[in-house]
Design brief:
By secondary structure, the chain is mainly alpha-helical. Helix content is 82%, strand content 0%. It is built from 1 helix and no strands.
């Protein structure tokens, strides 16, 4: 009887550890995916803001890039 109890305890422990490992992997991948989505959205918003400023500068300059200085 002890042997069966011991085997069941070990089996349940292994199953519980595997479940914790699986949940950890899933949570990590979901967090990484959310971070990448937010990073892409932030980059898209930043580039949209820069492009809108460039359009405003272009229009302010009469539809030309003449005389516009580019800093390197």
């Amino acid at each position: 009887m002890r042997s069966l109890r011991r085997r069941l305890t070990i089996t349940h422990t292994v199953v519980a550890l595997l479940a914790v490992l699986l949940i950890t992997i899933l949570a990590g991948s979901l967090i990484a995916r959310a971070y990448l989505d937010l990073s892409r959205e932030q980059a898209r918003d930043l580039s949209r803001g820069i492009s809108l400023r460039l359009v405003a500068l272009y229009r302010l300059n009469g539809g030309s890039w003449e005389g516009v200085q580019a800093d390197h």
